[in-house]
Design brief:
The structure holds two protein chains of two kinds.
Chain A (H helix, E strand, L loop, with lengths): L4 H22 L9 H20 L7 H23 L1 H4 L1 H6 L6 H27 L11 H25 L2 H15 L14 E4 L2 E3 L1 H5 L3 H15 L5 H32 L1
Antiparallel strand pairs in A: 1-2
Helix pairs in contact in A: 1-6, 2-3, 3-6, 3-7, 3-8, 3-10, 6-7, 7-10, 7-11, 10-11
Chain B lengths: L6 E18 L2 H6 L7 E16 L4 E5 L6 H8 L7 E6 L3 E4 L12 H11 L4 H15 L14 H14 L4 E5 L7 H16 L3 E5 L3 H7 L2 E6 L2 E7 H33 L4 E2 L4 E9 L8 E3 L4 E14 L2 E8 L4 E6 L9 E12 L7 E10 L5 E14 L23
Parallel strand pairs in B: 3-7, 3-8, 5-6, 6-7, 12-18
Antiparallel strand pairs in B: 1-2, 1-4, 8-9, 10-18, 11-13, 13-16, 14-15, 14-17, 17-18
The chains are: A mainly alpha, B alpha/beta.
């Protein structure tokens, strides 16, 4: 049963409706409302700046802006996966009683968090300008980077959401994994601080930098920093690896999801 | 294809895994078995077994059966929410399922916002929702509350809104699961009206309910599910009768089991039994006209309460008594051999005494029996208080304690 065009349209409207609801629901009933989507990353940035720039004296110019550049895509990634893992379990009533493709739920999580990031971008540009940083022509490449991250995140969100239905530990494992990944990505520190090789014994060295970029998030964050903060072209090899990772994640993720699809309404 | 049935199930079985104990197998296992089997091994439950059922276009079919017989699973399979473990489900047309109304409502959002989201979820387009919005609100009767968050709604209002949206979908096949039980009288009438409208428009309806009256009134045919199998399928009246007969038999069996338990309790000794036991009641039975032991009677049937006794020494002139009580303690009737002017003289050894009730003229309900043997001065030899139960079934819904033998006559006048 292939997806028909009419179905796709119908689900597009459904996705849009649910994303909108998600965004409106998030801040409903809070006094500051929408300001929270700025305040969250801002507060986080201030704490990190205090620790790393003031206490640890990170020797980097405009460190706060650099940090903010990496923090925004990271927050999109981490909150997307965090929400998506619980998306199907959390909507059990819906999955059990209404016939609709369940993959919509994790996709809605990723998209609503993307919307959040896009809304914070003006703040980032404001910072860049305030600190006298001109992103340059490579800024035009930003949509491509965002699109790659979208595909990668969706590819990871789909299987996580479905697996979590069977094995509730997934949410816990993920929460821990994301913390590790945060420190393994160049958000708090620039890539240049990661040694290219690491000597571990006599004549034995580990090619640390290439290994480091096996983490696709590292390549992604680096790309954001290159086009926004450093005003230079993306690291093409790293970005290529991100592309491969996104394709694999999306293909594999959808395959896993599809295999588990029929069991969702029963197990949730 | 005018002859193609709207819904057709062929050899459909559905198995669920019950996760008791939660033994974790490997993740590899999960994929090898395609996730359908689940990650855990445990007990299995066959909710449906080899169900073959065809529902012709434009018919309204009621599905009846006791709890856990597979009715809701059947609806979810037809609705496509669940996939059969084996067999094939064919559905021709757009399906709308009224199963657990209001699933997917967001409590923080207003009724208005939820209508939009829920409508799209159920497959309506934005234009369709805009066009039908006022109808939905009017049907649900929520005009003044439509801009309040649904978390402030009562559960009845919640269900009404859910029903109003679901019936707006204009399906070819409508699946209804026990939803008529929600809402007040007026709303139920509206729902029935809407269902009849669907029927008149030639839609196919599958209706799951425990309300046999509604099924008989509304449905053309009925299917009776019993432990996951179709026990009967045909005219609504006929299937309901067979089902009721079966229920009565099961109930009678259950009462029989209950009676055995009461006998065991009496033998083992209980606070409900006392007396000096010079003469003992060894067995108490209710028997019908044919002499068969039975604990479920139609109102007005003949019935006998039979007492077996054993006198351990000769007892002079014992009195046997029986009393029938309602479960709330009201005594319906009590009598004994002394009241009825009988004297058996000296009894020894074993024997049986029975009181034959010509017409068990009680109203529908459960009853308890007191039986006793005592001396003329009231000294109890053996008293069994409310140990034994029986039930009376009656289609007439008369009230009170007993049904007094009666008939109605037009005595005078009458417009002549």
């Amino acid at each position: 049963m292939g997806p028909r065009l009419a179905d796709l349209y119908r689900f597009r409207v459904l996705v849009a409706t649910l994303v909108l609801r998600e965004l409106r629901a998030r801040y409903r009933g809070s006094v500051l409302g929408f300001l929270w989507s700025f305040l969250n990353p801002l507060l986080l940035m201030l704490v990190y700046v205090l620790v790393f720039a003031v206490y640890l004296r990170m020797p980097m110019e405009n460190y706060a802006v650099f940090l903010f550049t990496g923090l925004l895509p990271w927050l999109w990634f981490t909150s997307s996966l965090g929400h998506a893992a619980g998306a199907i379990v959390g909507s059990g009533a819906l999955v059990k009683r209404v016939l609709f493709p369940a993959e919509i739920l994790p996709v809605v999580c990723v998209l609503s968090n993307l919307a959040n990031m896009l809304l914070s971008l003006p703040l980032l540009f404001l910072f860049l300008l305030a600190f006298g940083i001109r992103p340059g022509p490579w800024l035009a490449f930003l949509p491509v980077i965002i699109a790659l991250q979208l595909l990668l995140t969706v590819g990871l969100a789909l299987p996580l959401a479905a697996l979590n239905v069977h094995l509730r530990d997934v949410e816990q494992i993920l929460a821990n994994g994301l913390v590790l990944l945060f420190f393994l990505s160049p958000i708090l520190y620039p890539v240049s601080t990661v040694p290219v090789t690491l000597p571990v014994g006599e004549g034995v060295t580990i090619p640390l930098r290439p290994l480091y970029f096996l983490n696709p998030i590292a390549g992604l964050v680096q790309s954001y920093q290159n086009v926004l903060f450093f005003g230079r072209e993306p690291h093409w090899i790293h970005l290529g690896m991100v592309t491969v990772a996104a394709a694999v994640a999306l293909g594999g993720g959808y395959w896993i999801f599809d295999r588990l699809r029929d069991s969702l309404a029963e197990e949730v | 294809m005018p002859d193609r049935p709207a819904v057709s199930l062929r050899g459909v079985s559905k198995r669920f895994r019950l996760h008791r104990g939660r033994q974790i197998s490997t993740v590899k296992d999960l994929f090898l078995r395609g996730g359908r089997v689940g990650l855990f091994t445990g007990e299995e439950l066959w909710a449906l077994r080899d169900v073959t059922l065809e529902i012709p276009r434009g018919r309204m079919v009621g599905v009846i059966g006791s709890n856990g017989s597979g009715k809701s699973t059947l609806l979810k399979l037809v609705g496509g929410i669940l996939k059969p473990t084996s067999g094939a489900v064919d559905v021709a047309g757009r399906v709308s399922a009224l199963i657990e109304l209001g699933a997917g409502f967001h409590p923080e959002f207003t009724g208005r916002e939820n209508i939009h989201v829920n409508g799209i979820l159920l497959g309506l387009s934005r234009t369709e929702i805009r066009e039908r919005f006022d109808d939905i609100v009017a049907f649900a009767g929520l005009a003044e509350f439509i801009d309040n968050p649904v978390k402030t709604y009562s559960s009845g209002m919640y269900m009404r809104l859910g029903f109003a949206i679901a019936v707006t979908v204009d399906p070819d096949i409508l699946l209804i699961d026990e939803v008529l039980a929600v809402g007040d009288e007026a709303f139920q009438h509206k729902c029935v009206g809407r269902i009849q409208e669907f029927k008149a428009n030639g839609k196919t309806i599958v209706f799951v309910s425990h309300d046999l009256g509604s099924i008989e009134r509304l449905c053309d045919e009925a299917a009776w599910l019993h432990r996951g199998r179709v026990e009967a399928h045909g005219g609504a009246r006929e299937v309901i009768d067979r089902y009721l007969y079966h229920v009565a038999r099961e109930e009678a069996q259950a009462l029989g089991v209950e009676h055995r338990a009461a006998e065991a309790a009496a033998a083992a000794g209980t606070a409900r039994r006392w007396g000096s036991r010079e003469i003992e009641l060894t067995r108490v039975r209710l028997v019908d006209q044919a002499g068969e032991e039975r604990y479920l009677y139609e109102a007005g049937e003949p019935c006998a309460i039979e007492l077996a006794y054993r006198a351990h020494r000769p007892v002079e002139d014992p009195v046997f008594g029986v009393g029938v009580f309602r479960k709330d303690g009201v005594c319906c009737y009590g009598t004994n051999t002394a009241i009825d002017g009988l004297a058996f003289g000296k009894l020894e050894g074993e024997g049986r005494v029975a009181v034959h009730i010509h017409h068990l003229d009680l109203i529908d309900g459960e009853y308890l029996v007191d039986v006793a043997v005592h001396a003329r001065d009231g000294h109890p030899y053996d008293y069994h208080s409310r140990l034994y139960a029986f039930a009376v079934r009656s289609r007439a819904k008369d009230t009170g304690v007993a049904r007094l033998p009666h008939e109605w006559r037009l005595a005078d006048g009458g417009g002549r």
